[in-house]
Design brief:
Length: 294
């Protein structure tokens, strides 16, 4: 039995070839499942709307993001029904009233949020079905979710129709006219994003919890030397991963060697230890020793 040929890359062990899938060779459902499983994790827009009769609707959408800050624009895309091709209540309401709220979804809200994703009749209030309290908006009619850590009041900017078939998207762009932010999320003037404890959507029935997944990457403070300027011996090392090399490549120039009496039995191991501690200059001193003595 033949085994797949494998190669070591700077991002880990992986198969050598991609599987090429032509989108037109798959059904809409197959494309959708692959997209939601691979475009992940995705933030969740918990969208509150009203129709002209004042009936409330609440529904979650994970094709969602921010698109600009001046003016502040956020958007999400409710798809036409995959079975019937008909528009969802959220889209119909926004076409009528041209206003909506987006409430962010915390871990504590996730199970209740899932209840609201059922396709109830248009006259049914999903706030009641999912057990959420309504938060009054200041500048628009639709309500937000009181339990949410952050709510955006939005006025419609545009609806971009992305098709007319079952599963086709409708990109709804709205300008944020007001932010509702829970006061306990501020530490002085600093917004504590970890305290929101948001959830993100994966594929199938899977979610991620941001509080358990947050890590920090120090952004280069200068124009860095980049990967291509690293010594070949270091760049081609099997011991150093791409994440380690990126830290070495983040400096504006290679630090000069400072002769030291320190002695290490495993220079690569020591270099990795310094990099994991974000001691970049110290790691470069170990690199100099590797280049000189190994």
């Amino acid at each position: 039995m033949k085994t797949k040929k494998r190669i070591i890359t700077k991002v880990g062990l992986m198969t050598e070839k991609f599987k090429i899938i032509k989108a037109s060779s798959q059904s809409m459902v197959e494309n959708y499942r692959l997209m939601v499983a691979s475009i992940a994790p995705r933030p969740i827009a918990f969208v509150g709307t009203q129709n002209l009769k004042g009936n409330d609707n609440l529904a979650p959408f994970s094709f969602f993001n921010g698109f600009g800050a001046n003016p502040p624009i956020i958007g999400f895309s409710p798809a036409l029904s995959g079975r019937t091709g008909k528009p969802k209540d959220t889209l119909l309401n926004i076409q009528e009233v041209k206003e909506f709220t987006i409430s962010m979804v915390s871990f504590e809200m996730a199970e209740q949020m899932s209840l609201s994703s059922c396709e109830y009749p248009i006259e049914v209030d999903e706030f009641s079905k999912s057990g959420f309290k309504k938060n009054n908006s200041n500048f628009i009619k639709p309500h937000g979710v009181f339990e949410s850590p952050v709510i955006f009041e939005c006025k419609l900017v545009d609806i971009v129709k992305l098709g007319s078939k079952p599963g086709s998207g409708n990109l709804i762009l709205g300008e944020v006219v007001a932010f509702h932010v829970k006061e306990n999320l501020f530490k002085g003037d600093i917004f504590d994003e970890k305290a929101m404890d948001l959830v993100g959507r994966m594929g199938y029935g899977n979610y991620v919890r941001s509080q358990d997944s947050v890590f920090t990457i120090n952004k280069p403070k200068c124009i860095s030397i980049g990967f291509d300027a690293l010594p070949d011996k270091i760049k081609n090392s099997e011991q150093l991963k791409g994440s380690h090399l990126a830290k070495l490549a983040s400096v504006d120039k290679i630090p000069p060697y400072k002769k030291s009496n320190d002695s290490f039995s495993d220079l690569y191991k020591e270099c990795i230890h310094r990099l994991d501690q974000n001691k970049i200059d110290d790691a470069w001193q170990i690199v100099h020793q590797i280049l000189r003595y190994e």
